[in-house]
Design goal:
With about 270 residues, this protein is mainly alpha-helical. The protein has two domains: about 140 residues, no CATH class; about 130 residues, no CATH class. It contains twelve helices and no strands. Helix 2 packs antiparallel against helix 6, helix 3 packs antiparallel against helix 4 and helix 3 packs parallel to helix 6. The protein is globular and about 55 Å long.
């Protein structure tokens, strides 16, 4: 293989991305069979996170990018997706009942639930391939990892990953207290946004746009934040979460909606 410094992203990364996608197709079939027995579709989310780690590490051993770039790409994916995958595994899978969002989906799908859930798991394979691209651009960036623009991007990345981890931890601690059953979490970051974890998740993907600015393949990094923003705001993120919260928390959550921004953190309205 030619040195990444000389060929960059123009050497056609499609075979690597395709390999990652095909591997994840198989993994997601296995996880679908497991959730058929456990009745816990949150396995798909854990599979996405751990699959992303595996695919990016696979990229790193198939490219000649230098120890600095290889270490950077692996560090970024392990700290982000490894942390999130562990959180989801503990919070939603091990010893837990299925997230109400998936229960609602199964009920709405009726007899088609098994097939539709299979397709949902396969979409996770597509997601892994799609969201692995920013890491691949970082991996094949010919510039030194210490360039100013990359350091700024890394700073944004650090704030975003730390913010998402803090929001997850605050929510988990709130839910762990039996006195909070049936109450809305307004503690910490949740006082300023109804979904601070989603906001920082979205910012995390923008950090790659900044980090690779001007490098070969830079435009491909725009796919991740655009797709993630659409998914969080319109599809699998805020809409089903808000519907479930209204059903389980009622008027308390309606008050929370009136007084707290849905996505971008801001001063409470009352």
């Amino acid at each position: 293989m030619m040195d990444a410094d000389s060929v960059g992203i123009e050497s056609n990364p499609l075979p690597l991305v395709l390999e990652g996608y095909l591997a994840m197709m198989v993994v997601m079939v296995i996880l679908w069979f497991v959730q058929q027995r456990t009745r816990n579709a949150s396995l798909a989310e854990v599979g996405f996170c751990l699959g992303l780690v595996s695919v990016v590490i696979g990229y790193s051993v198939q490219t000649i990018s230098g120890i600095e770039r290889t270490s950077l790409a692996v560090m970024l994916v392990v700290l982000y997706a490894g942390r999130l995958g562990h959180y989801l595994l503990v919070d939603r899978v091990i010893g837990k009942e299925e997230d109400p969002r998936y229960h609602r989906l199964r009920k709405g799908w009726g007899k088609s639930a098994a097939v539709n859930m299979f397709l949902y798991f396969q979409l996770q394979a597509v997601a892994v391939a799609t969201f692995s691209i920013p890491f691949l651009v970082v991996l094949w960036n010919p510039r030194p990892p210490t360039s100013i623009v990359e350091l700024i991007g890394l700073l944004i990345w650090g704030v975003a990953v730390a913010g998402e981890a803090r929001a997850d931890r605050q929510l988990a601690q709130f839910r762990a207290d039996p006195r909070n059953q049936g109450r809305v979490c307004r503690e910490g970051l949740w006082r300023y946004s109804r979904h601070p974890n989603y906001f920082f998740e979205w910012v995390h993907w923008w950090s790659f746009v900044v980090m690779t600015l001007g490098a070969s393949g830079w435009a491909f990094t725009l796919i991740a934040p655009i797709v993630m923003g659409w998914m969080l705001l319109k599809v699998t993120g805020i809409p089903p979460n808000e519907a479930q919260a209204l059903e389980s928390l009622g008027d308390d959550y309606r008050t929370y909606q009136r007084t707290t921004n849905a996505f971008i953190p801001g001063k409470p309205k009352g």
